[in-house]
Amino acid sequence: MANNKPVHQIRLSAIRAAIWLNASNKTGESWYTVTVTRSYRDKEQLKDTTTFRRDDLPIVSKVVEMAYTWIWEQAAPSDSEVFE
Fold first, then answer.
1. How do the pLDDT tens digits run along the chain, 84 residues long?
2. How many CB atoms lie within 10 A of CB 63?
C-alpha cells in the first residue's frame, strides 16, 4: 500500500481525511476506507499523527462528515441517470 494514493483527500487546517478505494480480487467488490491524520511540524520536518488534541476534535468531526458525504456522492446516480 506504500505506493497507493488516496482517490480523494479533504483537508481542514492540519486535519486530513484520505479516502481510499479498495477492491477484492476474489469477488470484484469495491469499497472505500478513510484514514484521518493531523499534520504537525517537528523542527524542520512535517509529520503526521493519528492522535488528536481536544481542540482538533470538532475539525475531525467535520472532515469525517465531509468524507462520508463524498463517498455517498460517488455511489449516487447522476441526474442524467435518474431521468433516463
1. 445 899 999 999 999 999 999 998 888 889 999 999 999 999 999 999 999 999 999 999 999 999 999 999 998 776 555 455
2. 22
